[in-house]
Structure formats: C-alpha cells, structure tokens
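Summary for the steering committee. One of the milestones for this cycle was to obtain a three-dimensional model of the protein with (2Z)-2-iminopentanedioic acid bound, which we needed before selecting residues for the alanine scan. The sequence and ligand used are listed below.
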Amino acid sequence: MTDIIEVVKDRDPQEREFHQAVTEVMESIKPVLDQNPIYRQAKIPERLVEPERVIMFRVPWADDQGNVQVNRGFRIEMNSALGPYKGGLRFHPSVNLGILKFLAFEQVFKNALTTLPMGGGKGGSDFDPKGKSDNEVMRFCQSFMSELFRHIGPDTDVPAGDIGVGAREIGYLFGMYKKLRNEFTGVLTGKGLNWGGSLIRPEATGYGSVYFAAEMLATRNESLEGKTCLVSGSGNVAQFTTEKLIELGAKVVTLSDSSGYIYDESGLDAQKLEYVKVLKNVRRGRISEYADKFASAVHTEVDPAADCNPLWNHKADCAFPSATQNEINAKDAQNLIDNGVFLVSEGANMPTMPDGIDIFKDQKILYGPGKAANAGGVSVSGLEMTQNSMRLSWTRDEVDSRLKLIMKTIHRTCVDAAEQYGQSGNYEAGANIAGFVKVVDAMLDQGLV
Ligand code: NDP
Ligand code: 2IT
C-alpha cells in the first residue's frame, strides 16, 4: 500500500493535502484489499487516485475601479461510478489543485455513504470574496461560469457551495448558467428557496453533524443535553451546528474565524446566534465583534507563532471542528482529551491532522470523521436534485426527517463495516471501508473505463 502512496507523492510532490487524504483512506482499506485480491488486480487504488477529468481555466474580471483581475478556476471530476459528479465549489485564496483534489477524493467516499446516487467532484477558485462588493462577486461568478457551464449539467456534474460560496454566489452562478444554456435545470444545489432550492439545505451540514454526534452518543447511552461544546468556524456549518446543539440542550461556548476565536462562558442562545448570523451573512463582519457586543465573551486573536489553537483548550465534552482542513494538530487533540472532550464530530473536511486522529483512536473517544459526520450537506443536495427532477418541493419536516434517517443509516453503516473488519468502534475505518467498497464494486461492474 505504501506503493500507491509513494506513486502519488512522486507524481505530484506539491499536493500535500491530497497525499494526506489518500494516505488516510488507503491505510484503512488495506484489510479489504488483502481479503479481496480482485481490487488490486483491477488496479482499483491506482484508478481511484487519478481524477476522471481535471478542468483548469482562466477567470478574468474587472473590479469596481475598472482594473482587470485574473484568477484561476478549477473543477475536479473525480469519480462518476455512482452518479453525476457532485460536490461544492470553494472560493478562498488558499485554493490550489492539491486542496481541491483532496476535497474531491473525500467527496467520492462521502457521497457513497449517503445512500444517494452521486459521484464525487469539487471545484473552486483562488478568488477571495472577502472585502469584495456584491457587484465584484457577481462579475467574478459570471466569468467563472462562462467557462464552467460547458462542463457541467444536471446529469453530468452538479456543483454546490463550500467555503466562500453561499446563497449569494450560487444565485449569480445559476443566473449565468441559465442565460448561457437557455435552460432552467437543477444544475447547482443550494439554490434559493423560491427558485428550485430545498428547505433544510442551508441547515443540513450542521444539523447532520449534530445528528451524527447524537447517534455516536447513543451507543454509550448518552445524549447532547447539558453537554458543553466547542465549535470552530462561524460560517454556514458552524452556525447551524450551533443552532441544533442549542435546540438539543447543549451549551456552545466557542466560535471562530480566520482572525481568532470567541469564548463565551455563559454559552450562546438563540438571540446571540441570530446576532452571529447577521454579523457573518449580512454585514460580513469579523467574529471579534461578538466580544464587543456580549460582555460574557472574550476574543483571542490568532497567534501565527503558536504551536496549538487555544480554542481547543477549554473544559468541554464535545468538539465540532467546522472551519477548515488541518485545524486540529496533535497538541490540540491532546488538549481536547485533557479537557474532558470525549466526542469529536467533524463538520469540516479533514480538520484533524493524522497524528491528531491517532490520539483520538488510541484514547477510544467517539471520533466521527468528516466524510461521515458532514455528509448531511451533500445528502440534502441529493434530495434537492430529486425534488428538481420531480418538479416538486418537500416540506421542512419531510426533508429534515429524511436527513435524520440518512445520518442514522450512515452511522449504522460505519459501525457495521468497522465490526466486519475487526475494528469495532473505529468510525474512521468504518467510513473509509464502507465508502470504498460501494464505489469500487460499481467501478468493477462498469468495466475498464
Ligand atoms: P463558510 O465560508 O461559510 O465558513 C467558513 C468558516 O471557516 C469561516 O468562519 C472562516 O473564517 C473559517 N475559515 C475558512 N478558512 C479558514 C482558514 N484557512 N483558517 C481559519 N479559519 C478559516 O464555509 P462552510 O461553513 O460552508 O465550510 C466550513 C467547512 O465545512 C469546510 O471545511 C467545508 O469544506 C466543510 N463542509 C461544508 C459543507 C457545506 O455544505 N457548506 C458540507 C460539508 C463540509 P473567515 O470568515 O475568516 O474566512
Ligand atoms: O464538502 C461538501 O460535502 C460540500 N461542500 C457540499 C457538497 C454538495 O454538493 O452539497
């Protein structure tokens, strides 16, 4: 197995996050490969790490001063064994091919776990929406779509949101797609409610991560009521994770953004969360303002020289990393455990570094890896696609109960797959194995394509 990891590293040495994601999956599926020689004979590992197609393109646009700006656009069409490519678009200055390949790779297995017919993809740009006017964001999105439209479609590739891409961006992208194609179809998910979007899609990733946590807790006869929770991020996933935690009687004491984090010892309530939603989604301000507004909160700025993140160093029971990749290193993982945390549910993609994951597994805490715990978002995207095909809209309760059932099923699938391979209680192994088997069996059925 080291072989394929070495091949990937040699071929694209600079794609560190991709190496990390491939290593993590390949290590846990080793027993499956050993018991099923057909997978190695059919060169399944080699085929999985090579995207079916990578699209890279220039995105020129004019800023409000009339200056020409040029960004880079990407779409990674990773694997279509189970359905059309499906996965979000990320707009963030850190975006590069390696980051999007890691996200697309993770998406393939995540989507397989959802029980819905979706392949895996991811895309985005190194464009930074922060500090841009609505008109600048619109012109950028239009330019981005004026190339992407020829590669996507409701039965081919269906993008959605991720970091830096929310309702506003999906609206501008959809408008341009519709104009260029002269077709009103479900080509993107996360659409506005009154033009084809699904109820519960904005909430789905955060709610799903909490439902997954509740399932994990139930295996130890515990619930979220009264639990103190650390949440990172303050965007889409963090906001709705917090909302569901409050509703279930938990106490959320932290939120963050890329400048720092707030610790509110009295916990967030519905009114404070509403303040955060307006601050982040409407005013597009910084989380530090929360501590100016509420006296019970303290803001701590990011210290780029620090060897750990102080957000993870508070007394708590549960942690919900919901910002970005590699936000929990080994020291943070140890701090979490020393502070009493016994459950981690990953709302973000790959937020825990490999040696941090090892600590969680050694300590036998309830560790829900992103590809299982945050699959609620893409699941409701799948339900949005279904509703678009039927030209019908389901009620809030209908979508929420389907989401709950999907998260319950993913949890059960992870538990069963881990047990089958002698790794009881290891959700990481369970998620990787179950996702892998579903995708690669479909690949084998479909021949060498
Ligand atoms: P948003 O853009 O809504 O929010 C992202 C949040 O994370 C912001 O608070 C942002 O702070 C912070 N953040 C982003 N990059 C960094 C960084 N490099 N360092 C520190 N903080 C950072 O994105 P989402 O909430 O949608 O996404 C959060 C995570 O969840 C990502 O890992 C994403 O891949 C994952 N995810 C999202 C899904 C979805 O449906 N949206 C589905 C499944 C997973 P700032 O405002 O300063 O940039
Ligand atoms: O990482 C993810 O699963 C997402 N950003 C959501 C993808 C989607 O197609 O809804």
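Key point for the committee: The chain has a mean pLDDT of 98.
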